[in-house]
Amino acid sequence: MAKLTSMRNIGNEIEKKLKSVGICSAEELIQIGSKEAFIRLKMHFPNVCLVHLYTLQGAIDDIEYNQLSDKVKCELKCFSDTFK
Protein backbone atom coordinates (compact mmCIF):
# COMPACT_ATOMS: atom_id res chain seq x y z
CA MET A 1 0.00 0.00 0.00
CA ALA A 2 1.28 3.45 -0.92
CA LYS A 3 1.85 6.07 1.74
CA LEU A 4 -0.53 9.01 1.74
CA THR A 5 2.41 11.38 1.48
CA SER A 6 3.35 9.76 -1.84
CA MET A 7 0.27 11.49 -3.27
CA ARG A 8 0.36 14.99 -4.69
CA ASN A 9 -0.87 17.66 -2.22
CA ILE A 10 -0.64 15.37 0.83
CA GLY A 11 1.89 16.46 3.44
CA ASN A 12 2.62 15.19 6.93
CA GLU A 13 -0.11 17.23 8.64
CA ILE A 14 -3.00 16.10 6.43
CA GLU A 15 -1.61 12.56 6.51
CA LYS A 16 -1.84 12.56 10.32
CA LYS A 17 -5.41 13.83 10.17
CA LEU A 18 -6.43 11.27 7.55
CA LYS A 19 -4.90 8.43 9.56
CA SER A 20 -6.75 9.62 12.67
CA VAL A 21 -10.06 9.12 10.81
CA GLY A 22 -9.14 5.68 9.48
CA ILE A 23 -7.69 6.53 6.07
CA CYS A 24 -4.18 5.09 6.14
CA SER A 25 -3.07 4.64 2.54
CA ALA A 26 -3.32 6.24 -0.88
CA GLU A 27 -5.46 3.33 -2.06
CA GLU A 28 -7.93 3.87 0.80
CA LEU A 29 -8.23 7.57 0.01
CA ILE A 30 -8.86 6.81 -3.66
CA GLN A 31 -11.45 4.16 -2.77
CA ILE A 32 -13.24 6.34 -0.21
CA GLY A 33 -13.17 9.47 -2.35
CA SER A 34 -12.62 13.10 -1.48
CA LYS A 35 -16.14 13.80 -0.25
CA GLU A 36 -16.30 10.93 2.26
CA ALA A 37 -12.77 11.73 3.44
CA PHE A 38 -13.79 15.38 3.88
CA ILE A 39 -16.86 14.38 5.91
CA ARG A 40 -14.72 12.24 8.21
CA LEU A 41 -12.18 15.02 8.64
CA LYS A 42 -14.87 17.66 9.23
CA MET A 43 -16.44 15.57 12.00
CA HIS A 44 -13.13 15.40 13.90
CA PHE A 45 -11.56 18.68 12.84
CA PRO A 46 -14.24 21.39 12.50
CA ASN A 47 -11.76 23.87 11.02
CA VAL A 48 -11.28 21.73 7.90
CA CYS A 49 -12.29 23.89 4.95
CA LEU A 50 -12.90 23.89 1.22
CA VAL A 51 -9.16 23.99 0.46
CA HIS A 52 -8.80 20.64 2.23
CA LEU A 53 -11.49 19.19 -0.02
CA TYR A 54 -9.71 20.57 -3.10
CA THR A 55 -6.45 19.09 -1.77
CA LEU A 56 -8.02 15.66 -1.37
CA GLN A 57 -9.55 15.72 -4.84
CA GLY A 58 -6.28 16.88 -6.36
CA ALA A 59 -4.46 14.03 -4.62
CA ILE A 60 -6.94 11.52 -6.02
CA ASP A 61 -6.72 13.02 -9.53
CA ASP A 62 -2.91 13.38 -9.25
CA ILE A 63 -2.93 17.11 -10.01
CA GLU A 64 -2.16 20.20 -7.97
CA TYR A 65 -5.33 21.24 -6.16
CA ASN A 66 -5.25 24.70 -7.76
CA GLN A 67 -5.36 23.03 -11.19
CA LEU A 68 -8.77 21.44 -10.65
CA SER A 69 -11.27 22.42 -13.34
CA ASP A 70 -13.77 25.15 -12.58
CA LYS A 71 -16.55 22.58 -12.88
CA VAL A 72 -14.96 20.30 -10.24
CA LYS A 73 -14.25 23.27 -7.96
CA CYS A 74 -17.85 24.43 -8.24
CA GLU A 75 -19.20 20.95 -7.46
CA LEU A 76 -16.88 20.59 -4.46
CA LYS A 77 -17.75 24.08 -3.20
CA CYS A 78 -21.47 23.29 -3.33
CA PHE A 79 -20.79 20.09 -1.42
CA SER A 80 -18.68 21.84 1.22
CA ASP A 81 -21.28 24.60 1.63
CA THR A 82 -23.72 22.02 3.03
CA PHE A 83 -21.52 21.82 6.15
CA LYS A 84 -21.76 25.51 7.12
From TrEMBL:
Query: Could you tell me the superkingdom of the organism this chain comes from?
Result: Bacteria
UniProt xrefs under InterPro entries: TfoX-like, TfoX_C
Q: Which residues form the TfoX C-terminal domain?
A: 3-77
**Pfam families in alphabetical order:** TfoX_C
Transmembrane portions of the chain: none
The record, for PANTHER family, names: PROTEIN SXY (PTHR36121)
Q: What is this protein called?
A: TfoX/Sxy family protein
